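REQUEST ID: PR-0412
SUBMITTED BY: lab tech R.K.
PRIORITY: routine
TASK: structure prediction, single protein chain
INPUT:
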Amino acid sequence: MSLPDPHPREVFETLRRRGPGTRIAVVGASNDPAKYGNVIVRNLAAKGYTVLPVNPREKEIAGLPAFPNLAAVPGPIHIVNVVTPPAVTKGIVEEVARLGHEAVWLQDGSFDNEVLEAAANAPFRTVRDACIMVASNFG
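STATUS: complete
OUTPUT:
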């Protein structure tokens, strides 16, 4: 299987447009401060992004309204950041393709070869092998 570039320029440019106009959904967001799903939400919100936590069991995460799934998120989503186990991520990749979002950012631990193959065949750009918190540390 030949995989596309793991760091598509267009997605990193979207991330560089830091501010409330850049909308990032964090799928697998959590209220547990020890989990990356919480750390990422707080980190990106502190940097000024509009963060949209997605978790079907929570109404609020880190003081932000949470959504049960991507379809429930109002307005555009520029980057879908995924912090779920690979078995869950495969369904998220399918949902992102169905909804027509432009970019998925797969955090380490959220993907396996099956997920990468599904993402490679999807109509969106995929980032892997890069942490969104580190990549957003610029300027």
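NOTES: Residues 9-135 form a domain with the Rossmann fold fold (CATH 3.40.50.720).
REVIEWED BY: pending
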